[in-house]
Specification:
Jelly Rolls, 55% strand, single chain, mainly beta, 5-stranded antiparallel sheet
Length: 547
């Protein structure tokens, strides 16, 4: 036979089969006649279904037990919206030429001519983005200065906004004769850059200032040339205004194994009442975001069932908006901003969708920075470049069941039980006892049959669902404090005893079938204390020849 695989969600009501025990065996002998009568009694098996045990045995990290003992399934999937382009610090490379004779030079007291010029190294790549300052994680500067041939001069290069230990980068060179070219390399990792702003040009920049004291004559064509490069610039922390930008993650997919182990025929047999989706945005970037989760749909793509697709409707719309506040910082630690949305049966069709047993959520996530804020709003960005959005699917064990059936197998080696020995002359009677304590919120119909070693059905012991295991009585919170006790006694006929021995009966199958009252409208809660406990035992009388 096919041994029944327990679906994960039916775990909430029907749990695991315990081992068979050989304890409590009793034998009595009647010596009043020539042939002694042997009375033999023993348990066959103990069967226990408990919510707590199945959660523990399933070893499934998604099963939880609430403080009130209610079983639930909680599944969280993280989706990240990449904001790598929120701050773009491009490499910079330019050649600057300066003609001193055209710069209104000043004659100094020492006979030299002084002149200076300033150039910009622009860091922002968009007009709506402003960078105020940054701590440098990585970055390199190099420049090459060339003066006219046979120059006699003193050159000073200052980068006032790039501070090393609080002091501007400053370089000094002396030119004489053929010594008229100078190369400088600087690793600026760990330095601080205080940027200047050109509001009219929408530029965030730092300056390169060049001062030259020149001795001798200059012509109109004499030029000072500087090749300047900034590359591999990365921020440790950057402050400013990051502008109005958009990042999107289309067809973001969340796969969940919520229903993977539920059999195909259970689609119309188990339904859920109280389930929800929590949407949490966690923002470690110092920028507020407006997030639109759009085109939200659930798919069912498992091969063993018909495919399907259902839109998630929130207040009648197929999208939701979340305004996520920016993170804060004290200059050392970053405190994330956050936002939450909660979808349940009151504001969405999430219950209807999940009762279709989907296995995938697909949506488009579109995020916009600084929506509704002007450029005076201070932003910052550290090493985090992703906006984290968590989807949590929360399913408490509040279900309806309509004729859900499961099977458990108990060892019933009849030849072994009845001691297949020539000394056993006659089995006079064989009685089976089924004793149940039910703390499940279901009435349970019981059917029992016997199998041979090849899993062929030999006979039905209990059939046609005539035996009902009564439910305990739930209180107003759905909790059952005292179990309902139910017992059955089944006497095997002589015909059955002969059949079981001749056909070598090996196993007994217990089929339990549950339903909630009015399954379309009534739902029950399953707690970790919900359980169905039973002891299956037997007594047997046999005649043994006297010695």
């Amino acid at each position: 036979m096919q041994y029944f695989k327990i679906p994960l969600f039916v775990v909430f009501s029907l749990l695991i089969l315990s081992s068979c025990s050989e304890d409590d065996i009793h034998i009595t002998t009647d010596n009043s006649e020539d042939n002694r009568t042997l009375e033999f009694s023993a348990p066959l098996a103990r069967v226990l279904y408990t919510g707590y045990d199945m959660v523990d045995d399933a070893d499934n990290e998604h099963f939880k037990i609430r403080e009130d003992g209610l079983l639930c399934f909680e599944y969280t999937e993280e989706v990240f919206i990449e904001w790598d382009d929120l701050v773009v610090l491009n490499d910079f490379s330019e050649q600057w030429e300066f003609y001193p004779i055209l710069s209104s030079p000043l004659k100094s007291d020492n006979g030299s001519t002084s002149f200076s010029f300033t150039e910009k190294v622009i860091l922002n790549n968009r007009e709506d983005v402003r960078y105020d300052s940054l701590y440098v994680k990585e970055g390199e500067i190099e420049f090459d200065i060339e003066l006219p041939d046979n120059s006699d001069a003193s050159i000073t290069v200052v980068i006032p906004e790039v501070l090393d230990g609080g002091k501007p980068l400053t370089y000094q060179f002396d030119a004489s004769g053929a010594n008229n070219r100078f190369y400088q390399y600087e690793d600026i990792a760990g330095m601080f850059v205080e940027l200047s702003q050109d509001v009219e040009e929408s530029q965030s920049y730092f300056s390169v200032e060049v001062d030259i004291d020149y001795y001798g004559e200059l012509s109109l064509i004499d030029a000072v040339k500087i090749d300047f490069s900034l590359f591999n610039l990365k921020h440790e922390m950057i402050y400013g205004f990051m502008g109005y930008q958009t990042a999107e993650k289309l067809d973001a997919t969340i796969d969940f194994d919520l229903f993977d182990e539920i059999d195909v025929d259970l689609t119309n047999r188990i339904s859920f009442f109280d389930l929800s989706i929590g949407y949490d945005a966690i923002n470690r970037i110092g920028v507020p975001f407006n997030v639109k989760v759009d085109n939200i749909r659930f798919l069912r793509e498992r091969e063993e069932v018909d495919p399907g697709e259902w839109n998630l409707l929130i207040d009648g719309e197929n999208f939701l908006f979340v305004d996520v506040e920016g993170a804060n910082t004290d200059g050392h630690e970053i405190f994330p901003g956050s936002a939450q949305k909660f979808l349940d049966r009151n504001n969405s069709n999430v219950v209807d969708v999940f009762n279709e047993y989907p296995d995938k959520l697909v949506c488009d996530i579109i995020s916009q920075s600084n929506e509704g804020y002007d450029s005076d709003h201070l932003n910052f960005m550290g090493q985090e470049s992703d906006l984290q959005t968590d989807m949590t699917i929360y399913v408490p064990a509040w279900i309806s069941a309509d004729m859900y059936s499961r099977k458990d197998t108990v060892e019933f080696d009849f030849r072994d039980i009845t001691d297949d020995d020539d000394d056993v002359d006659e089995i006079q009677n064989f009685d089976l006892y089924f004793d149940f304590e039910n703390k499940l919120p279901f009435d349970v119909n019981l059917t029992v049959w016997v199998l041979d070693e090849y899993d062929n059905i030999i006979d039905y012991i209990i059939e046609d669902e005539k035996y009902v295991i009564k439910s305990g009585t739930p209180d107003s919170d759905g909790f059952i404090n005292e179990a309902e006790e139910t017992s059955f006694q089944i006497s095997l006929s002589n015909e059955q005893i002969v059949k079981y021995r001749e056909q070598d009966a090996k196993n007994m199958v217990l089929q339990t079938e549950i339903s909630t009252y009015d399954p379309e409208n009534s739902y029950v809660r399953i707690f970790d204390s919900s359980q169905l406990f039973s002891i299956i035992s037997f007594t047997m009388n046999a005649r043994i020849p006297g010695l």
